[in-house]
Amino acid sequence: MTKISASDVGKLRRQTGSGMMDCKKALIEANGDFDQAVDILRKKGQKVAAKRADRQATEGVVIAKNNSNNNKAILISLNCETDFVAKNEDFIKIAHNILDKAVSENLESSEELNNMLLDDGMTVAEKVLEQTGVIGEKIEVSAQVIEDVQVSSYVHAGNRLATLVGFNKSVDHQVARDIAMQVAAMSPIAVDKNNVDQETIDRELEIAKDLARQEGKPEQMLEKIAQGRLNKFFKENTLLNQAFIKDGKRSVAQYLQEHSDDLSVTCFKRVGLSN
After folding, report:
1. 152 and 95 share a domain?
2. What is the pTM of this model?
3. 237: which strand partners?
4. Is residue 83 part of a domain?
């Protein structure tokens, strides 16, 4: 039997993050062949992934970052099953490594993420599979990308919620951050009322009519009442019409216009983990 040294085990552990005993067993099975031992550990990850395919990966790390020109921002969500794993320093480091690489490689879409090469030579998909074997939990990764004249990103304390916002023109850093924080705090469904899909509008109108009927309002008044409640829905749930969180006397649109007449938000992304 090939003699396995402690340094070989340590090297494999540093590269894969697997436990000492798992690394030793893999090296013994591979007769000391380092690359084969790595493959053995990856296959272990495949087995764990298959067994845990029906599990919910609702914990994890959500982080975001701008590029150096502030015209593109990327959000990475690395999900796992338990809060214990989500708070592990090595798990958080992997999320940051993926994000940093995505920014430096100018990632264009979430679809490209799994095939992106990391600094250790693994693709993101291979890294996720490897860590599934190391950790023993279902792990998933996804990305959101925004590119515009200027972008802003915000990560809420605890790495459980992050946002990206795109603007139609250059904007002061603090203003951009304020809007990214607004999206985090108020969870709008669209930028403006014109961006709300018709299915949502129809559902809200129907709910409003039903409520008015239950309140005993006359049938001929239902449409007008429903429209009024729909306008209230737009005000509460579309970003530009929401009350600005730092000053409820003005809307987000008014706050932006104070800095530039035609300044506006073009798009946003918000990703948060369920509690």
Report:
1. yes
2. 0.81
3. none
4. yes
